[in-house]
Design a protein that fits this description.
The protein contains 15 helices and 19 strands. It is α/β, with parallel strands linked by helices. Bound molecules: (4S)-2,6-dioxohexahydropyrimidine-4-carboxylic acid and zinc ion. Residues 61, 63, 93, 311, 313 line the site of zinc ion.
Length: 470
């Protein structure tokens, strides 16, 4: 068979090693990997000499804001940012307007994303107090998984009670879909924030004081218990503290199907950066004391944490620079800078580029049932590739971001290691650091290839549905 493209001379990065080999691509898929002279003839050949070829990152946590907040981001700008970050698949959060909480909102978002996205994507469905009954229609409409906010954050979607959360877990468990949790307990934060506001605190560090680690630890523990009872699969988003690692590790040891993610801002930033950044650093959960960083890195290395994602949460400069910290929108862009930040830090943290592809691509694909199509460079997989120059240095510059949000705490930081070319299903969407024309709408929803292992619901005789049937 003739190939569309053969890439020569690159160093291919797998989770368990690096291999010098050529890659042949046909119809968007990897046709062959091997010695240059074993490659089929090709329409185009590409020289990746001196470069590393990684599976494109799968960022399971982005907010592309479309529909509803397109002054902050949309599918075009968000997915352009992904392309520049070496990210080939994103999972988009449901706190848009309308929230992605029923079949019609989901179908509208699919229509927007399929016409504008440059990278592949999955869409999360929203689990709120009053949207649990919509789970079947959202599954039928094509979600990658569900999102449940245990604490309020941007978008002010109300937090479901523990009763509603248990019922949501009961309903989702037999579908096999994974529920991703914003694990911060609303009532603890609300009380502390109200007390501080009354006392007149409006400084950036008040945000951290309102959300100490117990806010997250209590939520992670509660979510793990509900998952254990119902057999629902869960994923803990944006783990920010050392203290959350114990309930996560303990639940894993008990056999709960639970996975954990952290983000670059918890690995690189600390309470010491609040002075420099002001409201720009405001994010939920908050950036914490520096002592948390080493345990988070250690948990990635040991496998207690599975994934690095970004919580790409774009806002405009005026929304990020208000004087009163309680009025500053939470979050900042990250999908574009994650890979460079991580690659820069690996030597210092005694981690390898192989570890990195495990956290950024291999594990996300496995955990959401996208393997073997996504997340690894192997024959038969989609040719989703980030081609990276590990020697290339750059100073991160907010003004140069593809994201519509030109404000982040990363501005001015020197990184080493840059994605130079990004391919999604065999097509260059970024080449030589230039966005490729006509790539809008190339992205596809990955729910169609998702294949989760058989669901294992538990305590099914005690579910809400069972007890009303009697
Ligand atoms: O800081 C945050 N911003 N945390 C979240 O969980 C949501 C996000 C947003 O949508 O802006
Ligand atoms: Zn988020």
């Amino acid at each position: 068979m003739n190939a569309d493209l053969v890439i020569h001379n690159g160093q291919i990065v797998h989770p368990d090693g690096i291999v010098d080999a050529s890659i042949a691509i046909h119809d968007g898929q990897i046709l062959a990997i091997g010695a240059p002279d074993a490659m089929p003839t090709a329409t185009e050949t590409f020289d990746a000499g001196g470069l590393h070829i990684l599976p494109g990152a799968i960022d399971v946590h982005v907010h592309f804001r479309d529909p509803g907040y397109t002054h902050k981001e949309d599918w075009d700008t968000g997915s352009a940012a992904a392309a520049f970050g070496g990210v080939t698949t994103v999972f988009d959060m449901p706190n848009t307007v309308p929230a992605t909480a029923n079949a019609s909102a989901l179908s509208d978002k699919h229509a927007i994303a399929s016409s504008r996205a440059r990278v592949d994507y999955g869409l999360y469905g929203f689990l709120g107090e009053d949207t649990i009954a919509n789970v079947p229609e959202m599954v039928a409409g094509g979600v990658i998984g569900f999102k449940l906010y245990m604490g309020e954050t941007f978008g002010r979607l109300p937090t479901p009670s523990t009763g509603a959360m248990l019922e949501a877990f009961e309903i989702v468990a037999p579908t096999g879909k994974r529920i991703s949790l914003h694990a911060e307990t609303a009532s603890i934060m609300a009380r502390r924030e109200a007390r501080m506001r009354n006392a007149g605190r409006t400084d950036p560090l008040a945000h951290l004081a309102a959300r100490p680690a117990i806010v997250a630890v209590e939520a992670v523990s509660r979510a793990a218990i509900l998952a254990e009872w119902t057999g629902a699969r869960i994923h803990i988003l944006h783990i920010s503290s050392a203290e959350e690692l114990r309930p996560l590790a303990e639940a894993k040891a008990r056999g709960v199907d639970i996975t954990g993610e952290t983000c670059p801002h918890y690995l690189f930033l600390s309470a010491d950066d609040y002075d420099r950044c002001g409201g720009v650093i405001r994010v939920n959960p908050p950036v914490r004391e520096a002592r948390n960083q080493q345990p988070l890195w250690q948990a990635l290395t040991s496998g207690v944490l599975d994934i690095v994602a970004t919580d790409h949460a774009p806002h405009t400069p005026p929304e990020k620079t208000r004087n009163d910290i309680w009025t500053v929108d939470c979050g900042f862009p990250g999908v574009e800078t994650q890979m460079s930040l991580m690659l820069s830090a690996l030597p210092l943290r005694h981690a390898s580029i192989c570890d990195y592809v495990r956290w950024s691509a291999y594990n996300p694909a496995r955990i959401w049932g996208l393997a073997p199509k996504k997340g690894a460079i192997q024959v038969g997989a989609d040719a989703d590739l980030a081609i990276v120059d590990l020697g290339r240095e750059m100073v991160l510059d907010d003004a140069a971001l593809q994201s519509r949000s030109k404000i982040s705490p990363w501005h001015g930081r020197r990184v080493k290691g840059l994605p130079i070319h990004t391919l999604v299903r065999g097509r260059f969407i970024m080449r030589d650091r230039i966005l490729q024309d006509g790539t809008q709408g190339w992205g596809r929803s990955v729910h169609t290839i998702q294949s989760m292992p058989a669901a294992r619901p538990r305590n099914t005789d005690a579910t809400m549905e069972a007890i009303v049937r009697f």
